[in-house]
Design brief:
By secondary structure, this protein is of the alpha/beta class. The chain has a single domain, classed as 3-Layer(aba) Sandwich (Rossmann fold). Helix content is 45%, strand content 13%. Bound molecules: guanosine-5'-diphosphate-beta-L-fucopyranose (GFB). Guanosine-5'-diphosphate-beta-L-fucopyranose is lined by residues 55-56, 59, 94, 96, 119-120, 123, 152, 165-167, 170, 188-190, 194, 196, 242, 265-269.
Length: 305
């Protein structure tokens, strides 16, 4: 989802010399294949969006795969970027790197100030390792790698698998299917009380190009930030409870049935609102409103799924 959004944005901005490989052509978990790719193609700029990701149940059910695949992919790419003289690299993570009970909104400097949310601790530890790998290579080798932490993303090419997906695509699919079958209610996981901040993936792609294209002074200021070097949040500030999100999706889809909450399913973090003042001060703001983004995600689902 993130990679395809970045490619759309690069192409829209006129970039032509893109090095794109499908999963079949290049297995990012293979040290040998990644090493060959970098030494032959010699990319100058790397957007590291590839990851094993999933919603709250996938994250807590497949912890071994999540920690292994993410550590392997990012280690292969970051290390080979250094070996092959990549100029700039953006490493994408997630706001789940911050402590479960972090003060809100979460500033970059709150990293490692408290324990993680248990449902996604394995994934978060892998992402934290990536942040420290970028920082450590910057410090030892003088590379220019920046870690970018978006909040909960959604949009075109999202995963609509009901067990593995994140909440927004799951709600779109569940509520649409309930409407089609004439069901009286839809089951929503958890209490409905957690708060989440959502960002449409095309806004994230715009933020990534904005950061990759920063002038040297601004980019180096981010890399050398005294309290949180080489780490920047990208959020929308559009925070909403899961209950209100479900009501919004119900409205967009046009379903008139009830919402039933399943307390057996985990809530996860009570709240994770990113403090995006760093990127705002540099001049970037998101532009896609949550409701508009849901309308277009629902359209994408109807056309493609
Ligand atoms: O999006 P989500 O799976 O992940 O769940 P997290 C967000 C909230 O929505 C939780 C509730 O409180 C869920 O219980 N929810 C309600 C549902 N109905 C559903 C449903 O049908 N499906 C899903 N998936 N959730 C993820 C992390 O945490 O956030 C990842 O696991 C990553 O590591 C990602 O950081 C951004 O927001 O809780």
């Amino acid at each position: 989802m993130v990679g395809s959004a970045i490619v759309r944005r690069l192409e829209a901005d006129g970039y032509k010399n893109l090095l794109l490989k499908s999963r079949k052509e290049l297995d990012l978990c293979s040290q040998e294949q990644v090493a060959n790719f970098f030494s032959i193609e010699k990319p100058e700029y790397v957007f590291l969006a590839a990851a094993r990701v999933g919603g709250i149940i996938a994250n807590s059910s497949y912890k071994g795969e999540f920690i292994h695949d993410n550590l392997t992919i990012q280690n292969n790419i970051i290390h080979n970027s250094w070996l092959n003289g990549v100029k700039r690299l953006l490493f994408l993570g997630s706001t789940c790197i911050y402590p479960k009970f972090s003060p809100q909104p979460m500033k970059e400097e709150y990293l490692l100030t408290g324990s993680l949310e248990p449902t996604n601790d394995a994934y978060a530890v892998a992402k934290i390792a990536g942040i420290y790998q970028c920082r450590s290579y910057n410090q030892q080798y003088g590379t220019e790698y920046l870690s970018v932490m978006p909040n909960n993303l959604y949009g075109s090419n999202d995963n609509f698998d009901l067990e593995k997906s994140h909440v927004l695509p799951a709600l779109i699919r569940k509520i649409h299917e309930a409407k089609q079958s004439g069901d009286k209610y839809v089951t929503i996981w958890g209490s409905g009380n957690p708060l989440r901040e959502f960002l449409q993936v095309d806004d994230l792609a715009a933020a990534c190009l904005f950061l990759m294209n920063l002038d040297d002074i601004s980019y180096n200021t981010l890399l050398n930030d005294k309290v949180a070097p080489a780490l920047i949040n990208v959020g929308s500030g559009e925070e909403i409870s899961i209950r209100d999100l479900a009501l919004l999706v119900r409205d967009v889809v046009g379903f008139s049935g009830e919402l039933v909450f399943d307390a057996e399913k985990p809530d996860g973090s009570p709240r994770k609102l990113a403090d995006s003042s760093k990127i705002h001060e540099l001049g970037w703001q998101h532009s896609i409103k949550l409701r508009d983004g849901i309308v277009s995600a629902y359209r994408w689902f109807m056309e493609n799924y």
